[in-house]
């Protein structure tokens, strides 16, 4: 007979949405249990955001060292290596895993500090408030009854029937654990996951080719924003086959062969050491009893309102399970909000904008409306743009020669900032300032009159604001 536990709040999934919800619920004095089938931290910490950024950082360091060892290098910093650097990817992966392990332990420590009980196992619901958990590494089960259930089950890489995963046809999860650099890599999909990993492996020395179904990369961003990334790809001889449809793969022997149709409808093939499939992610709705919970669906996602309530009373859903944008920081914000609502606080999920960042080369960030989107919504628009090439800190970091800039979209009548977008080295670090400006309903004048530290990359934000008046100082 299985053990029976009762709690006020049961959280399913210890990713960035689930563990934040559980910690906040614990802080608010709610008896909370969180169930996780794998390791605390979820996709973002264990096999997504954090490990990919570690790999991207290592790849960038390696590329910089390789540049300083070139015989024909004309580098004004005066740094020169006497021999070319070498990469041992298995050791890089060990280093990456040490970061993951540290953060995993940190999350478990935070849960414990908040008096949240962590149960490691797979939950299966028999009704909306009751689940049975098969404990990891054991035949033992635990039954849990809860007053409130927060579903934070996350998402998984989409597997195409025509491109089944194997040793040579892989998802981002396997790509982040490769033990050697593939000499050649074909990536199906030139969205943010594919581009981030493709650029990293290109820096390590792989010959990378993208097969993309649309006529452009990163459709979330307009073409002005993606142009510096396209220029980097071209400079590094990375081919993108646009308007191409993958039709299958022959995975026999060492080198898989990807079949596709090009824009003209012609059948083509391309051979590579690995085929990486990055065509998106799907919510984890199967295999844990969702069908027994009487919640409504919106396409493949669980339907929720602006407080993340489902159709079933006291059952909540957050993060990737409830739809786009499938971003860790959205999930965390929703998790914190739901815990506070359960505790009696008045909250709703009504952000003005959710920042989206792509850690490509160079990085790209968008918050709010683009100029075209603002015009489509009826705004008379003013746009200010300022290049990092005119920012001293960027030049000192050798980060001002990548075509990067900050662009501000504002309402011409009220000066209200409608959107801020940027592309360039390290611009991800500016995204929080951008989001704050929109959330606080800042005007262009607010940014102009905020004294920005010199020398920093953030000065480009102030100058872009001034540029909307035609008054940028340093251009």
Apparent shape:
globular
Major β-sheet strand ordering: 1-2-3-4-5
- Determine Rg (CA atoms, Å): 24 Å
Mean pLDDT: 94
Put simply, the count of helices is 13
β-sheet strand percentage: 25-35%
End-to-end Cα distance, whole Å, is 74 Å
**What structural category characterises the helix and strand content?**
alpha/beta
Let me know the number of strands.
23
Largest sheet at a glance? 5 strands, mixed, barrel
- Stretches where pLDDT falls below 50 for ≥5 residues? none
Kindly state the percentage of residues in helix: 25-40%
Report what the structure shows.
The chain has 475 residues and is an alpha/beta fold. It has helices spanning 18-27, 42-47, 49-68, 89-113, 172-175, 192-204, 223-235, 328-342, 371-376, 392-396, 431-439, 444-448, 459-467, and strands at residues 3-12, 32-36, 117-127, 130-135, 141-151, 155-157, 169-170, 184-188, 207-211, 239-241, 245-250, 257-261, 267-271, 274-277, 281-283, 297-298, 301-302, 315-317, 356-358, 363-368, 381-387, 405-411, 417-424. The strands form 6 sheets. Strands 1-2-3-4-5 form a 5-stranded mixed beta barrel. The mean pLDDT is 94. The longest helix is centred in the first third of the chain and has 25 residues, at 89-113. It contains 13 helices and 23 strands.
